[in-house]
Write a structure and sequence with these properties.
Blueprint lengths: L4 H9 L7 E6 L8 H26 L7 H21 L10 E7 L4 E7 L7 E5 L5 H9 L3 E6 L4 E7 L2 E4 L3 H10 L11 H25 L5 E6 L1 H7 L5 H5 L1 E6 L7 H32 L4 E3 L1 H9 L3 E7 L6 E4 L5 E2 L13 E4 L2 H4 L1 H6 L3 E5 L3 H5 L3 E5 L13 H7 L15
Parallel strand pairs: 5-8, 8-9, 11-15
Antiparallel strand pairs: 1-2, 1-4, 2-3, 5-6, 6-7, 10-16, 11-16, 12-13, 12-14
The structure holds zinc ion.
């Protein structure tokens, strides 16, 4: 089963204060002899390390959750899930080229398995209070909700591209053909044949433009890519609604009748990757200059966390290898870059967060914040490898639970960034 955005959002909602959430990512090794056996050995090693880390934390941590019955529930739950992951590793190779993700919490009766395209950074196991979603955030970025549209003067084929899978949407071609025939041009006499053909073509391109507009309005896709001959492009594009044109990521040459699906997919992915890399570069420049002028940009972990809590963040930029500790309040959920024992907002005890870049992902996903991972950028490195573009800049400090974003959310208001996009490296 492939994962949907809605499922990712549900995973982002999950929180278990006893740290029973197990996240497992499997990336098959490149095919060669005994690769399957190597994968199994790797998973066993990772499982052993995860259990060891959990046991040693249980001994060292002074927090009440690690001792007594709660600590035992946690260890038993996580151990049961990790054992099950190891058992699963025996079957993983049989599904061929797919990667896999498992999200489990035996204490809460949760076990979700998903197939993913085999482009994960590696095989990993995490045990934490929340599910680790960074590998999926990469995938979403690599494949935003995308339509691929092939047209010529009497045909149109529309495809969905989701997590690397290309699917043709049924019925559209027939609908268009019927519409073309029923528009009444059959009455023209033979002398006007060319004009009739041109009119039919114009009606056809107009109908395609209308379907694209509807698809974007209904959120069927967020961005789209056009495959056609230049001559048809010049006929279709003048018919497009302004925001349909804006959502067009790029074009490639295609003969509607003959192109193979694999070729369509390859062209589309190249266009998406180019677009994302341009967008990322543009955003980094914009955020840094906005931050320098104390306008709609902030840099550094402390300021970015504060802006996230204020609901100000429109786009979050994270260094690909960004790693920083923080603390999380067990009461109100406040995240603090200062490693304080008690929450400055509500006074309750805090818990350590080993990877704050991972801890903020559930927030980012829940709030539809656009996010990009930034790789190898010296300017970005200088400002601490974390920055945000703000949609507004508010004056007063509020804790998360009463932040602007939550108030908006409770009021049912739509966020400006409704269509979130993640970026790959
Ligand atoms: Zn608090």
């Amino acid at each position: 089963m492939s994962i949907t955005r809605e499922q990712i959002r549900e995973l982002a909602e999950f929180h278990d204060p006893r740290s029973c959430a197990v996240s497992f990512y499997f990336q098959p090794s490149t095919p060669r002899n005994k690769a399957h056996k190597e994968d199994t050995i790797l998973i066993k090693d990772l499982a052993r390390e995860a259990l060891h880390r959990m046991e040693s934390l249980g001994v060292e941590t002074k927090g009440p959750e690690s001792k007594g019955p709660e600590g035992k529930i946690k260890r038993d739950s996580a151990r049961a899930d990790i054992d099950r992951v190891v058992r699963l590793s025996g079957e993983l190779r049989s599904n061929g080229t797919h990667a896999k993700a498992v999200f489990a919490c035996a204490a809460r009766n949760i076990w979700h398995e998903y197939d993913l395209p085999a482009s994960l950074p590696g095989t990993q196991i995490f045990v934490d209070r929340y599910f680790h979603l960074k590998p999926i955030a990469y995938l979403l970025g690599a494949f935003p909700r995308l339509g691929v549209v092939l047209v010529d003067r009497h045909r149109a084929r529309i495809f969905d591209l989701r997590l690397g899978e290309l699917t043709e949407r049924e019925g559209l071609f027939q609908t268009l053909s019927r519409k073309g025939r029923s528009d009444g041009f059959a009455g023209y006499d033979g002398g006007h044949a060319q004009r009739r053909v041109d009119d039919e073509a114009r009606q056809h391109f107009k109908a395609v433009a209308e379907i694209l507009k509807e698809s974007l309005e209904k959120g069927v896709f967020e961005k789209w890519i056009l495959g056609c001959q230049d001559i048809h492009r010049s006929q279709l594009e003048p018919q497009l609604h302004a925001y349909v044109s804006q959502a067009l990521l790029g074009r490639f040459q295609a003969d509607v009748g003959h192109i193979a699906n694999e070729e369509i997919r390859t062209h589309a992915q190249q266009i998406v990757e180019r677009w994302q890399s341009d967008r990322r570069r543009e955003l980094v420049g914009q955020v840094l200059s906005q931050a320098r002028s104390h306008a709609r940009g902030v840099t550094g972990l402390r300021r970015v966390l504060r802006s996230l809590e204020m609901g100000e963040v429109q786009t979050l930029l994270l260094g690909e290898n960004f790693q920083a500790h923080a603390v999380e309040c067990s009461g109100c959920g406040h995240l603090d870059a200062h490693l304080v024992s008690y929450c400055p907002v509500c006074g309750r005890a805090t818990q350590e967060v080993v990877d704050v870049g991972e801890a903020i992902l559930p927030w980012v996903i829940r709030r539809d914040i656009e996010m990009f991972y930034v790789k190898d950028d010296p300017e970005f490195d200088k400002v601490g490898n974390v920055a945000a573009l703000l949609r507004f800049r508010s004056g007063n400090v509020q804790p998360i639970t009463t932040s602007v974003a939550d108030q908006l959310g409770r009021a049912g208001a739509a966020y400006p960034g409704r269509l979130r996009k993640f970026a790959s490296r």
